[in-house]
Fold:
Amino acid sequence: MIRFECDYSEGAHPKIIRILSETNFEQTSGYGTDEYCEKARRLIKEICGAPGAHVHFLVGGTQANRTVISSILRPHQGVLSACTGHINIHETGAIEAAGHKVLPLPSPDGKITAEQIENAYQEHWSDETHEHMVQPGMVYISNPTENGTIYTKSELSSLSEVCKKYELPLYMDGARLGYGLVADNNDLTLEDIARLCDVFYIGGTKVGALFGEAVVIVNPALQKDFRYFIKQNGGMLAKGRILGLQFLALMEDNLYLDISRHAVRLAMKLKAALSDKGYGFLYESCTNQQFPIMPDAHLDALSGKYAYSIWEKTDDLHTAVRFCTSWATREEAVVKLISDIKGL
Structure:
């Protein structure tokens, strides 16, 4: 079985395995207070052009989202998100379990707009019964989105502007950030993201690490006591140096972007073959996630050899699915899949 259903099927990049092995018997302090974590923090701040940022390493995306959001919101507040946002559909109510409501906004492609944020804010405060409703307290986006789409610099700038206007912290989930940064239609840099967002995270779990995410808190007002929140939410690793070492390996010498380019290149190769076959796409994605709409009979023929994700039925005879490449996807696996698709 060749797996294309997600981008975390493999272990870790060989450089990470090597550096973990080479430092295995070293003794360091715990909980991310070691020299490797500190060096990785300095490197991330330098790359992001954010010398005043605080960088924290958490074990996974759900822990990062729950910890960041619960650290920002007051008990009566909720977080605005696309209806398809990861926190709304794929985290088993982790935000709600922390005592905060996700406030979903309609989205045809996974993104939300500055106009939607403004309307949601105004709608709440113009209602004379607003004290009886959950108050919008921050904004959550992901880049790339669950649907493989990405924000442009103009879109993110507009979001940032309206969030600052209404004092709503803007938080970007960057679980697949590397794949978005190297997409052909991307015009955002890490420096742009650090300038326009209050908090974001650089995803490692889906981009070459064994596990782990690097949360970057740019807004000084949100930095205080964050380590307390990490511990309380189960995101603090005793052997914290394992996280620091991984991000040190990923961020040195552009490895993070280089391995992301590998995944996106193979995804674009697959996308071209799917398009040549005549399939349409549920979403227009230039990242490592592709969402072709295929005849069910064709999917049945592929299912014995390939794993993919079912996304949604589009009619009685067709289904939108997701094929996902990763930093470790083998070229020959994509070539084989393309060959079998051509033979359908």
User: Anything to note?
Assistant: The chain has a mean pLDDT of 97.
